[in-house]
Amino acid sequence: MQHLVDTYDLTDQQIQNLLRDAKNFKYQKPIQLLRDKLLITLFFENSTRTRSSFEVAAKRLGAAVVHLDPSRSSTKKGETLEDTFANLCAMEPDGVIIRHSENERPRELADMEMSPVINAGAGNYAHPTQALLDLFTMMEHFDGEIEGKTVAIVGDIISSRVASSGIRLLTRMGMNVVLVAPKPFMPESDLPQYEKLDDVMDKADVIMSLRAQLERHATPIFENYDEYAKHYCITKERMGDRNILLLHPGPVMRNIDISDEMLKDPRCKVLEQVKNGVYVRMAVLKLLLLDA
């Protein structure tokens, strides 16, 4: 039984297979490979893109999907998550997709070895399918030539599971990752760190902007989001005519993370990431429910 809790769960060959399958799914309508499969989604945090992307991916491959709303589940009556999971697995699903606020929860459920577990985002540590779809988007943009390219991750890095997962996967793939944030937003890391966005604009091949999560910090760093935006918003003026790929995992805070003008710019691939997320998640479901 194989799980996807972190990208470390995948071999290099499996990652290459995922990228190949995602590309095939994108350009050729797939047959219903999973028409006899059943998936359960269990989201303890709000989600628009990830939950709907997984559901679309599953249904495009012919699988059935059942969503359990934790706010209406027996966890509200005091049932442990482990018992909830065990009861769901007793119904013999082919996989469980979970999002949780605690870093270790998906791994703990995977270790029960009752059903394949797919981590749809946990705490501030792991969001493996987001990292994979970001990698796929870069691979397509650079025609597969990503080794040695420099990715600047900008924003509230310490709070971001997208950044954490991305750092592990992109460095593994031979990319150079630099971090751009005010010191309170910066994690402990051996990677190059910058406080000023302008210091990396001429170094970056890719900018991965993150949502400013000021609410996660007990001590105010900026008086408001407008003050943050003065330093870290990706604007047309900052980008100039540089040929930089601009990414964001969503939701984008307009004119705080990325300006309205840049969201319309062809260098910005935010909606392409959403599109690619469906194909990458189709590839993940194929891997875990069929190939593994």
TrEMBL record:
Carbamoyl phosphate binds at R49, T50, R99, H127, Q130, G250, P251. Pathway: Pyrimidine metabolism; UMP biosynthesis via de novo pathway; (S)-dihydroorotate from bicarbonate: step 2/3. GO terms for molecular function: aspartate carbamoyltransferase activity. SUPFAM superfamilies: Aspartate/ornithine carbamoyltransferase. Its EC number is 2.1.3.2. It is an enzyme of class 2 (transferase). HAMAP family: Asp_carb_tr. It catalyses: carbamoyl phosphate + L-aspartate = N-carbamoyl-L-aspartate + phosphate + H(+). This is Aspartate carbamoyltransferase. Belongs to the aspartate/ornithine carbamoyltransferase superfamily. ATCase family. Residues 147-287 form the Aspartate/ornithine carbamoyltransferase Asp/Orn-binding domain. L-aspartate binds at K77, R161, R211. Heterododecamer (2C3:3R2) of six catalytic PyrB chains organized as two trimers (C3), and six regulatory PyrI chains organized as three dimers (R2). Catalyzes the condensation of carbamoyl phosphate and aspartate to form carbamoyl aspartate and inorganic phosphate, the committed step in the de novo pyrimidine nucleotide biosynthesis pathway. It comes from Sulfurovum zhangzhouensis. InterPro entries: Asp/Orn_carbamoyltranf_P-bd, Asp/Orn_carbamoylTrfase, Asp/Orn_carbamoylTrfase_sf, Asp_carbamoyltransf, Asp_carbamoyltransf_Asp/Orn-bd. The keyword Transferase applies. Residues 2-140 form the Aspartate/ornithine carbamoyltransferase carbamoyl-P binding domain. Keywords: Pyrimidine biosynthesis, Transferase. It comes from the Bacteria.
